[in-house]
Design a protein that fits this description.
By secondary structure, the protein is an alpha/beta fold. The protein contains 7 helices and 6 strands.
Amino acid sequence: MELPIPAALMPRHVAIIMDGNGRWAKAHGMPRAWGHRQGVVALEPIISLCGAWGIEALTLFAFSTENWARPKDEVAQLMGLIVEFFNKKIDELDQKGVCIRMLGDLAGVPQVQRETARQAMERTKNNAGLKLNIALNYGGRQEIVRAAQRLAAKCASGEMTPEDIGETAFEGELYTSGLPMVDLLIRTSGEERLSNFLLYQCAYAEFVFVKENWPDFSPAVFAAALDAYARRDRRFGKV
């Protein structure tokens, strides 16, 4: 698929809240688990297109710190899909040069998922292609508190002083350290909120909300979202 917008206008970092799997399944008379599975199917071409179109980083909201409150069987199904995705796709992703990073508190994730994620990160850590970030057991507020705690610990140990703390130091303690700030945030299913996702990193992101549920997020819908982004006048607080 050819570039939907000029390369010079392509966002460096795209973040996606993949919403609407359950609603999609309900609309098709299927259980929520089927919707989540179809969501994984929809994800594969989007990852490929990001690499082909020269997007530097793609961050996906897979499982939030609040999602543990969902029914236990649904949580188990989501966790199972994470392992299934990596088992099926890690060879292909590695061959394409994708570098995988998990964002979130992996210590709070079941051991099988935690080890699967860590193995994927270790295997692809030196790859120079698309930076694929998967937010797992992630919360934006938790990330900011964690960064503050880490900086406070460095001050307490004498490694730095409070006066040393600026944006660069703070960003260095975020899960996204070393990545560009988010240029484009896409949320599917017609919902229009951040839901505690990348609160710091989206300070100057452009938001595009699409009506399609995530399983219907096709390459054409993605291209339309990029076109909407390219038409924005990004001033970053300036005139």
